[in-house]
Every structure is written in structure tokens, then in C-alpha cells.
Design a protein that fits this description.
The protein is an alpha+beta fold. It is about 20% helix and about 25% strand.
Length: about 220
């Protein structure tokens, strides 16, 4: 790919809002229980620290460095009924020691464009580093245009899913031996959303996209 100049990270998915605290429930129990912890900054750092940290991890892995500065804008929809402390959209421009940039684009609002992926732009070409829910959707493009009709090389299935080379469904990829995954498996099995207040990982939105994971091998150019 040559020298990396830009990384683009997207985490744009409906997460769901925090409703009003029900009567009879203590405030402390409401904030730390029932998976509400991601909605309060003092408990978890909010959705930014709980979920977007993974996009930041990816860009640091790619750059093999930590950013030196960050410039961000963020806000909430004017008609928001969210009772949490989270912002619902923000964009951060990260600058790394060599001057290279990374764009981190996040939005938790429903009924909007959804995208969950990380892209790399080098001096020779661009590439996709990961896909929805950090799946190893790895391929390079012929130039800087990141489109399906411009793919030059796609990682073999065995390279991105070594734990089960023979393709699996999204449901099968969630390990049964981990108790905390039962809710997620049930959500996918019955086509229900899952996560904080029901929408954290947007299961109902990406189920169809990931239901049959396929990584066909294309000729390397």
C-alpha cells in the first residue's frame, strides 16, 4: 500500500436511547444495572469509551503509534428524548506523530445511514481493514476508490476466519460456551435487536448483511 497517510473509521449504527427511570427503581441501581452503564459517563465513560474505543484501537494498530492531537465536534439531535449523558454523533480528526491523519466518524441515531468499517489510504492504493462489528473484511483496492467494483485483492477466507475456515453464519460465530453471549444469540435467532436498551450492536440491522459470511478469493494484482 505504500506509506499510510489516512485512516477512516466509521461506527454509525442505531444504539437506542435511555428511557426515564421507572418509579420504584433506585437511581444507583438504574445507572449501574440493566445494561444501563453505557449511558452514564461516571460508570463506563459512555458509549464513546465503551464502543468507539475499538475504532481508536484499530487506527493505532494500523499507524503503529499513538495520536498526538485530536480535534472533535459533537452534539445531540435537537428533538432527542435520550435521558443518558451520551452525545449521539461526533467526528474526531486524530493526528499522528508523522503528520498522518485518522478520521473517526460516529453516530448512534436510528433511521440514518449505517456504516461500520475501517479503511486505509496509502500512497499506492486504499484498503479495507475491517467490516461490520470488526469482522475481518480485508481487501485492497486498485486505487483510492473504496468500492466493491474496484477491489484488487481479497483476503482468503482462511486468513480472516482461522477459527473456522468453512464459512459460518453470524449466529454460529457467537460462542455457545460464554454465558454472556446467550442474549445476543437469542436476539439473532429470533431477529430481535440486542444491546444497551436493545440496540447496541444493531443486530436487526446487520443480521441480513452478516448472516452468511463469505470471503471469496480474487486474483492478486
Amino acid at each position: 500500500m505504500g506509506e499510510i497517510h489516512l485512516v477512516r473509521c466509521y461506527r454509525m449504527q442505531p444504539v437506542g436511547i435511555l428511557q426515564k427511570r421507572p418509579e420504584g427503581v433506585k437511581e444507583l441501581n438504574w445507572q449501574i444495572g440493566n445494561r444501563n452503564f453505557v449511558h452514564f459517563l461516571w460508570v463506563s465513560g459512555g458509549l464513546f469509551a465503551e464502543m468507539n474505543i475499538h475504532q481508536i484501537d484499530e487506527m493505532c494498530w494500523i499507524m503503529d503509534a499513538l495520536p498526538v492531537t485530536a480535534h472533535a465536534i459533537a452534539g445531540r439531535a435537537p428533538d432527542s428524548k435520550d435521558c443518558s449523558q451520551n452525545l449521539d454523533s461526533f467526528t474526531i480528526e486524530w493526528t499522528f506523530p508523522n503528520g498522518a491523519k485518522a478520521l473517526d466518524i460516529v453516530r448512534w441515531l436510528p433511521n440514518c445511514h449505517t456504516e461500520f468499517a475501517t479503511y486505509i489510504h496509502g500512497t499506492k492504493c486504499a484498503a479495507q481493514f475491517s467490516g461490520w462489528s470488526h469482522v475481518g473484511t480485508a481487501h485492497t483496492y486498485k486505487d483510492q476508490r473504496c468500492s466493491n467494483d474496484n477491489i484488487a485483492w481479497r483476503a482468503p477466507k482462511e486468513a480472516v476466519t482461522p477459527w473456522k475456515p468453512s464459512g459460518m453464519t453470524c449466529l454460529e460465530s457467537i460462542h455457545k460456551d460464554r454465558p454472556h453471549n446467550e442474549a445476543k444469540r437469542a436476539a439473532l435467532k429470533h431477529r430481535r435487536p440486542h444491546g444497551p436498551r436493545g440496540r447496541a450492536h444493531g443486530a436487526s440491522d446487520h443480521l441480513d448483511k452478516m448472516n452468511e459470511l463469505e470471503f471469496p478469493v480474487l486474483p492478486e494484482h
